[in-house]
Amino acid sequence: MPRPPARTTGVIAGACVSAVAVLALAVRPGELRTAAIADDGPEVVAGTPAAAAQGNAADRAVPTPEPPAAPPTVTLAFVGDVHGEQQIATALAAGTDLLDEAAAVLSAADLAIVNLETPVGTAGTAAAKSYSFQAPPALVTALAGAGVDVVSVANNHALDRGVVGLRETLALARAAGLATVGGGDDAAAAYAPARFEVGGLRIAVVGLSRVLPAASWAAGVDTPGLASAYDTSRAVDAVRAARAGADHVVVVVHWGSERSACPDTTQVDLAEALHAAGARVVVGAHPHRVQGIARPAPGQLTAFSLGNFLWYAAGEESGRTGVLTVTLDRAGVVDAGVAPFRIGPDGAPRATTDADAEVLEGILAQRVPGVGCPLAGVPRG
């Protein structure tokens, strides 16, 4: 039976420990019932002494104080790799809504953040590399229509059509109403966070990549490009700068080894450095596999890889995906869960089965350092 994607259990492991915990057990519509409470006390008839006494008591009653205001919270949604190749491009050209099943989860969040692993538009010349992507402008329109708010271009495909293609991508994304992070006309623009004030909290989103085909893809003082995380100190500085004037910093990072089920050493080391610099949430992509989600310290969360999301590969591992939802209050992460999906033949995230969702829960709990993966990460592939 198809599983309703927006109501799931998320299993998140604590870092460096063997125990796992269920963080979010949502109640499906119809499962929660409320019952009216009947008053079985004595009947009071108007005009009787009992009625008068009741009225006098009401006159003397002290007003109930207003309950304290709920603490401010913000809900963030994250997905993995998104592009517009092959059957996805065909469907976009036909006007097909490829994100119709995921839109409810994405749009329910205060901010939804995506890794845009492709240039968008028609400009530029294909880079001389094995896979050189370019998506039609309809892709960013579809993302915005599904409730996405932020796209990161810090990845190994954003310059597949050169600087001209990067600039067109940023312009088209912004024209569609999306904030962009991770790339720009110089290092200052590439490392700059997107800032939001939602739910009474100030959120800064930073995009970084530790997977670049060439050093020239990194933005320089006066040269366009991407926010590189090969220089850990530069990545840490970006997080610290974002932390100024923000309650929480969220980092979307491209890292790891392709087709690896476990985080590698660079993921483990960089995650530790980013959290130490002030990042509350670190969410990764690039391995094209779902890896685990850890809670390295109270109020923090690391999702090592969310795998693919809108993607042409739909195999057993490459087609496994989900939407991570994280809730923060002033102190940090207070709740998290993953809505499971599976990539369909059309490349779109589709509702999956209960059995498949249970497999995903196990992956999220086990593919973390110190649980089902080496504590220091696997050697980088």
Task: Give a quick rundown of the structure.
With 381 residues, the chain is an alpha/beta fold. It has helices at residues 49-60, 87-93, 103-108, 138-145, 162-175, 187-191, 232-243, 265-277, 354-366; strands spanning 9-14, 20-25, 74-82, 111-116, 150-152, 179-181, 183-184, 194-198, 201-209, 225-226, 248-254, 279-285, 293-295, 301-303, 308-310, 320-329, 332-343, 349-350. 24% of the residues lie in helices and 26% in strands.
How is this structure best described in words?
The chain is of the alpha/beta class and 381 residues long. It has one domain: Metallo-dependent phosphatases (Purple Acid Phosphatase, chain A, domain 2). It has 9 helices and 18 strands. The protein has helices at residues 49-60, 87-93, 103-108, 138-145, 162-175, 187-191, 232-243, 265-277, 354-366, and strands spanning 9-14, 20-25, 74-82, 111-116, 150-152, 179-181, 183-184, 194-198, 201-209, 225-226, 248-254, 279-285, 293-295, 301-303, 308-310, 320-329, 332-343, 349-350. The strands form 3 sheets. An 8-stranded mixed β-sheet has the order 2-1-13-14-12-11-9-8. Helix 4 links the parallel strand 4 and strand 5 (150-152). Helix 7 runs parallel beside helix 8. The longest helix is centred in the middle third of the chain and has 14 residues, at 162-175. The radius of gyration is 24 Å and the shape is globular. The two termini are 38 Å apart.
